[in-house]
Write a structure and sequence with these properties.
Urease, subunit C, domain 1; homodimer; globular; alpha/beta; 26% strand; 16 helices; TIM Barrel
Chain lengths: 413, 413
């Protein structure tokens, strides 16, 4: 007999994302139940078998799922949700046909976010970001990656990472930080990119590592920003101080970011709108996750990544929001699933794996998160839908009615 | 001095959609206020002038806008939200590349909704549809058009329209019904489309008109469904019994629906993905509204309507959801705005007019609805955003915090 402190019953479907635990590629258990103790799943199965196997401890809680669908808490493995300022004017200008240069000349673009973020204190960044994490949680996301990269000085990058660390402790969403000092060349280093790379490698990275402020290192490997060679320098320097690589690759130009990701053994290469299939195949072989961000293509009006061709190479495909003020001001992962299905022709199953188990892989957290099986964290979303397919099918509506993080109800409608 | 029974104050922006009442094409009043009596707006202006002009009656209510943005209640002028059954499997099949024929062979397609709707009673249709109207309201829609067209027999079309009438009386969203018996050729009339048109004209339309069950008449004017000639017959027969034309035109093929809309003086021609620019220009001249449904293009993965080219003809462009189980299972009009801006490159101003004033025009209700000015119904949405642009910019999140219909708060977060 297993003793639990949380039991969830009355679930029309329990979507484990573990094929061995139920039906189909998502391992769906109809009329399922789960039990947790001390924040971890201890039992999962058919509700009819629960009483045989599990006893609820004296202070335990029995949660009535009310016929809802239970799924793993969603994992958003690529966001820039810590920032100051706002760029809705730029969004309007872009619809009117304004170029990147015209937007920058009007005071927009990434450097406008850098100016505002530099001007903000840690406390101000926390105050601005905390409601965004609340919104993320309300849409079912229980774990989120958040990048620095709007500071672009050592002090401002550390400030962002301190705000991100603070946020991870101050609210229920699990936050993992990425040092993204090479998000853009700092304006002070215009036309001196190699000098800025030196700053990143010799000053920023050691300072971040010394303070234990980040888990991952990211670089915007793109024509006109950081070359493959510069990106490799940064990622390898990150590896030397214990940061796993997870970076922006081949978004606008086929520069060779996918190939680089395979060579350096990155956790994930992200965007990949223009990636060469050979490069993606190399990623598949090296076990690198391809993280696609269809919300960005949607928001910018660009063609979507060829997800089906990528899947045919055998690469693991994750989906993330890219939530940021410039190129995708949207935190809703089920809506990202709808884009994946409608626009990129992924199956609904692959789309759901993309925001759960595969996203956990993209963060190296697959042993802890991303699916529901005994031993993993009890991070669960209850959705008020007749079956899991409605999450992407009935789109633009937030179906999440309850969110459980480490065995505790942290959000309820 | 004007006596009011509702006063709304503390609004960071009051977006009137009446250029003469405020700044810019949307007539925005910063720090605005409005007053209503007996469900109609009686005063609108700067909060600073409110006390000078308006007194609140003894049982009146003062609503604190808490620094939110006020906008006209959204108008969804094209939906099929009354239906039985569900088509999430078909959505998955389509992503996998299944053709229309394969989907129909597997039991999907519009006729699957017809089968389920024919099998449902009025009460069952009401019970299925009422929560959808609640969702619609929660996303800021205060007036909705709902079509019949899943019955395709006289009795089943009347049944749908009775359910729709009942729904209009049973909940706060204002509902206007469209008779859409010519949504598809009934399966019993396969290869006898002219006979089905006879049934629509000689039996269905008189029965609908006699019972006063619809305000509009719609037909799916499309290759393989109803020809321009057949559509004209139906629309003209509708006109004879007092129903205004408002119909599906040029969605998949440039059949001449736009031209027909101009010729018969329709209120609106809808979809228009393939419409010829000449036809749209004729619509502009005839005062017909072009209603675009980007959610459908999004959901089906089709190219969007060329909205900017349409706007250049001078045509009035409305935006609607097309909420239906087959081709767009989404009721969220602010998300439709995002699609209009990101995908069709409409300005955010035109996108907002598309779901307010221009949608009211598409329903012939512009004297009552769609903008905020004295004399019109007091249908107001309060949105928890720093400015109105966030409605489409910060997408995939429901920003609506309160909905007022005819001067009464009918939904609050």
């Amino acid at each position: 007999m297993i003793t639990a402190d949380l039991v969830v019953t009355n679930l029309v479907e329990l979507v484990t994302c573990e094929p061995t635990l139920g039906d189909g590629p998502l391992g769906v258990i109809r009329d399922g139940a789960l039990a947790a103790a001390e924040g971890r799943i201890v039992w999962i199965g058919a509700a009819a078998d629960l009483a045989r196997d599990v006893t609820l401890g004296p202070s335990g809680r029995r949660l009535d799922g009310r016929g809802r669908v239970a799924l793993p808490g969603f994992v958003d493995s690529h966001t820039h949700l810590c920032f100051a300022g706002s760029r809705e004017e730029e969004y309007a200008m872009r619809a009117g046909g304004a170029s990147y240069q015209e937007i920058a000349a009007a005071g927009g673009g990434i450097l406008s976010t850098v100016r505002a973020t530099r001007a903000a204190s840690v406390d101000e960044l926390v105050a601005l970001t905390r409601p965004r994490l609340r919104t993320v949680l309300a849409h079912g996301t229980t774990t989120v990656e958040v990048k620095s990269g709007y500071g672009l000085t050592t002090a401002d990058e550390l400030k962002m990472l301190e705000a991100i660390r603070w946020l991870g402790q101050a609210q229920p969403v699990e936050v993992h930080a990425t040092f993204c000092g090479a998000h853009e060349v700092a304006p002070e280093y215009r036309d001196r990119t190699d000098d800025y790379v030196d700053l990143v490698v010799h000053e920023m990275l050691p300072a971040v590592a010394e303070r234990g402020l980040a888990r991952y290192v990211d670089v915007f490997c793109e024509e006109g920003v950081f070359s493959v060679k510069q990106s490799r320098r940064i990622l390898e320097a990150g590896a030397r101080v214990g940061l796993r690589a997870k970076f922006h690759a081949d978004e606008f130009v086929a520069l060779g970011g996918a190939e680089l990701a395979a060579q350096v053994g990155a956790l994930s290469a992200d965007h990949l709108l223009r990636a060469r299939l050979d490069g993606v195949a190399a990623m598949a072989k090296a076990g690198v996750t391809a993280t696609l961000l269809p919300g960005t293509a949607f928001f910018l009006g660009l063609p979507y990544a060829p997800a089906r061709s990528f899947l045919e190479t055998g690469v693991r495909v994750a989906l993330a929001s890219d939530f940021n003020p410039g190129s995708s001001m949207g935190p809703n992962l089920p809506l990202v699933m709808t884009m994946a299905v409608s626009q990129m022709k992924m199956t609904p199953e692959d789309a759901l794996l993309g925001i759960t188990l595969h996203a956990a892989h993209a963060m190296g957290l697959e042993a802890e998160l991303g699916s529901l099986r005994p031993g993993k964290q009890c991070d669960v979303v209850l959705a008020d839908v007749p079956n899991w397919r409605y999450l992407s099918y009935h789109y633009g509506v937030n179906h999440v009615s309850r969110v459980i993080k480490r065995g505790r109800v942290v959000w309820a409608r």
